[in-house]
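Field reference: sequence -> structure
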Amino acid sequence: QFDSEAVYSNIKKAVGEQGVIFVGSTEGLKEHPEIFRRWFGKVIPTGDNKFSALNSAVFSGGSFIYVPPGVKVKHPLQAYFRINAENFGQFERTLIICDEGSELTYMEGCTAPKFNTPTLHSAVVELIALKGAKLQYITVQNWSPNVFNLVTKRGLAHEESEIKWIDCNIGSRLTMKYPGVVLKGRKSRGEVLSIALANNGQHQDTGAKMIHAADETTSNIISKSISIGTGRATYRGLVHVPKHLKNCKNNTECDALLINATSRTDTYPAITVRGTGNSVQHEASVSQVSSDQIFYMQQRGLSEAQAMSLSVNGFVNDLVRQFPMEYSVELKRLIELEMEGSVG
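Structure field:
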């Protein structure tokens, strides 16, 4: 703990010397109202949905980050959210602004101990990337099975900027999360890479939204889900390209892996492309772990459980490699723990 605190303090001091503001949301509102009020609620209005309205009314905690023009933050900024109390609701609000030509990677972890009563997590995250900025937002959640995780996450990408969501969803009773990017500026780019794992009694309802609002914009969605036992994974995606736009591109891939006969997966893509001169492609697949593959690995000395875990990690490996090293190692271990007892 002492060492962790020291590292955190040093990083915060280092980015502060670059002019970067990295504080809690409440602190940001008090100390930097001119920046906070300018962007708060502009990407996700209070009336966007009932959960964003609730969050806007009662939010506490979360991160407020402002990166000045041209500043490239070398080390990822990190936050950790934990629900410790029973019958509790957590409503953090995160607002990140990357000014022109700046770069930032932000990572958050989410977890909670097991309780017998339901717990609500209803966060709102707003990202703004101004001209030429690059913003990457990484989430690894490992909620307990009693948590209802109902969040709203959206980014606004200006001209030639890039917003990238990397999302891992493990645990919770129900997760409904669809990170989105509004591609407002010409040649802006949005990307969502998502992993969802639904175990017994869990429903991972995840996906992505890409709203093209300027010419020559590009979006990419890659989603992989794993359903174990009676778990259910749902992909829910939205891609919208208006009639007047030209040279817009979108690629969507959603692949699902079913572990047991009782596992379930659903895909609900909504793709609207009006006009001509745009390129959109969508690919989806559903598969089961091959019995021949499991048998082959067992002949090499692995147990059935080890073989199944290796197959699942191989299924998501392309996306796991997008995470920083320490997160990818943790993620593989979390998947192994979730796989325990899934066979036999």
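Note: Residues 291-344 form one domain.
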